[in-house]
Amino acid sequence: MQIVTAFVTGLLFGLGLILSGMTDPTKVTGFLDIAGAWNPSLIFVMGGAILVAMVAFRIAGTRTRALLGGAMHLPTARQIDKRLILGGVIFGIGWGLAGYCPGPALASLATGGIKPLIFVLAMLAGMAIYEILSRFPDTKRH
To answer: DSSP secondary structure string, 114-125?
Structure first.
């Protein structure tokens, strides 16, 4: 049952990304181009997503089990540190250059285009590099 729920949830999320225009890199880069030909339409997409997430996290914080009975896995980190800031900067640069972020890039793979494929492969390579580098001890924490 969980695999079916995950599939339906992912399908609904992907359809939402397509309908909202988040899979169109020209629309995304137009949104990010505040000094040029700015396209503010994605503000409504982001605002709606933030509102839904706020309500969902508020409700989830009061529960001990998920709707399907599994354990709740909510984020526990509350601090803004160097890793979070650096990750956000790298994410933002990638989003601005390519016009894709991970979810829309995966949904865009269905178009068969080469650009989303290159982005997803680069994203996977970056994830692999992070995993490899994270196995080395951090000498600054000693």
So the answer is: HHHHHHHHHHHH
